[in-house]
């Protein structure tokens, strides 16, 4: 096909509409390029429940095998299950998913052995260049001896490994509503939760890549309405929503109220530091709540602030030897999980914390949720640089304010902060603000939005 790879090769993965932007013939070339760039003798490949995923995944496997690489197909899996396989087997891996995107999309998340990320600066650019070369000229030369393609089941081992990291055997019985959004949580949750003191209420566990009930993106408030209602109806202790490839989890309390991912980051950080004798580094991106570094310090740890994006988090995890990392987007990273993100392990930590004491979740997380946040507010702008410069000009030189440009512009005062970042893919500026009370947050939020929107 006449593909425009600039449209589908993103900063961290491959993603586009099937078959308009890419198809199985292109997936085969990506498999061959992945084999060459990693130099691996063997790889592992998995896929989600989208209608196009099995065919794309198998084509990728064929492309790699033609280059002499032995391929282990683990079939239907969550993204963190693929990371588990990459870490446990010591093999590079490829996961076919478009996460929370609509059904017509698909993509590839790639990693090196031990779940180390493959992004623009760590191999993805070279993979793209090879595929472009082969599209323009001839196909890659096959190896003299092609590799094998075999199948292996990993779900039970993945579940057992996660349960070995968090002890839930002695918690009180919890009533837990899980909304899988017709995504891969419907595949992994029954096995991970099997035998635990959990009264599971499943929602939308049927694997269906057309997402008939709602988008599998729990960060959009519209997509957790069903979960909130069911938690209240059931009198449940907690509700958990997973995104399409089940690498992110979002939590609601017993009243159905959303729990901030920053509060979850702080809670899990406290548990990981406790397990590590009150020592260790915890990574957080610059738009997580002030609560996160405060809680980390209170529990003896060292907080390290990074740019937004999993490649930055994972790089800092590796550089600092961090024990845990969290993002506002409900991605949670664990040293014990090869520095990779796993929503399921974060969910198990929350369940262990909740079930290990008698308070409701709303009371438990209150100590980790100390400020009022705006959430992420997107504004379409004609000129990102000009609008960002206007915001900077408004606050630069003002007494009592600190400005930094680690990622976009962050302005901090004694009782509030905000960050404005440009989108890499759309003409948007993203605003996040936080303050010690609702009035202060609303004031700074509206002030900055007025500048952004001119």
TrEMBL record:
Cofactor(s) essential for the protein: Mg(2+)
UniProt keyword terms in alphabetical order: Isomerase, Magnesium, Metal-binding, Phosphoprotein
Protein species of origin: Streptomyces lannensis
Residues in the signal sequence: none
InterPro entries: A-D-PHexomutase_a/b/a-I (IPR005844), A-D-PHexomutase_a/b/a-I/II/III (IPR016055), A-D-PHexomutase_a/b/a-II (IPR005845), A-D-PHexomutase_a/b/a-III (IPR005846), A-D-PHexomutase_C (IPR005843), A-D-PHexomutase_C_sf (IPR036900), Alpha-D-phosphohexomutase_SF (IPR005841)
Entry-linked PANTHER family: PHOSPHOMANNOMUTASE (PTHR43771)
Protein's name in the database: Phosphomannomutase/phosphoglucomutase
Family: Belongs to the phosphohexose mutase family.
Domain Alpha-D-phosphohexomutase alpha/beta/alpha, residue spans: 7-133, 157-256, 264-371
Domain of life: Bacteria
Alpha-D-phosphohexomutase C-terminal domain boundaries: 376-449
One Pfam family linked to the record: PGM_PMM_I
């Amino acid at each position: 096909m006449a593909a425009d790879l600039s449209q589908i090769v993103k900063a961290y993965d491959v993603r586009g509409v099937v078959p308009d932007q890419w198809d199985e013939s292109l997936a085969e070339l990506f498999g061959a390029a992945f084999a060459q760039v990693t130099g691996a003798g063997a790889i592992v490949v998995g896929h989600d429940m989208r209608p196009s995923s099995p065919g794309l995944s198998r084509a990728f496997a064929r492309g790699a095998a033609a280059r002499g690489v032995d391929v282990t197909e683990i079939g239907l899996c969550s993204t963190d299950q693929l990371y588990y396989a990459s870490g446990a087997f010591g093999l590079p891996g490829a996961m076919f998913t478009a996460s929370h995107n609509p059904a017509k999309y698909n993509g590839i998340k790639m990693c090196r052995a031990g779940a180390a990320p493959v992004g623009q600066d760590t191999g993805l650019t070279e993979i793209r260049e090879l595929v472009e070369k082969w599209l323009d000229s001839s196909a890659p030369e096959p190896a003299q001896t092609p590799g094998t393609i075999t199948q292996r089941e990993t779900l039970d081992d993945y579940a057992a490994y996660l349960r070995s990291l968090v002890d839930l055997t002695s918690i009180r019985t919890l009533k837990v509503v899980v909304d899988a959004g017709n995504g891969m949580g419907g595949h992994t949750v029954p096995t991970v939760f099997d035998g635990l003191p959990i009264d599971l209420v499943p929602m939308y566990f049927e694997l269906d890549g057309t997402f008939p009930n709602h988008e599998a993106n729990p960060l959009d408030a519209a997509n957790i309405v069903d979960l909130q209602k069911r938690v209240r109806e059931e009198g449940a202790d907690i509700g958990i929503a997973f995104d399409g490839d089940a690498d992110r989890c979002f939590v609601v309390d017993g009243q159905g109220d959303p729990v901030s991912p920053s509060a979850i980051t702080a809670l899990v950080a406290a548990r990981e530091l406790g397990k590590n004798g009150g020592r260790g580094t915890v990574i957080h991106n610059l738009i997580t709540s002030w609560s996160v570094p405060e809680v980390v310090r209170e529990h003896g740890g060292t907080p390290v602030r990074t740019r937004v994006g999993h490649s930055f988090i994972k790089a800092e995890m590796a550089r600092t030897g961090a024990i845990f990392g969290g993002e506002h987007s409900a991605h949670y990273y664990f040293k014990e999980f090869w520095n990779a993100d796993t929503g399921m392990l974060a969910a198990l930590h929350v369940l262990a914390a909740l079930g290990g004491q008698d308070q409701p979740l709303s009371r438990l997380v209150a100590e980790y949720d100390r400020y009022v946040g705006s959430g992420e507010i997107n504004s379409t702008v004609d000129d990102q640089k000009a609008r960002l410069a206007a915001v900077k000009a408004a606050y630069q030189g003002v007494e009592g304010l600190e400005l930094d440009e680690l990622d976009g512009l962050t302005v901090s005062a004694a009782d509030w902060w905000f960050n404005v970042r440009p989108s890499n893919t759309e003409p948007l500026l993203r605003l996040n603000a936080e303050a010690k009370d609702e009035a202060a947050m609303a004031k700074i939020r509206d002030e900055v939005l007025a500048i952004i929107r001119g």
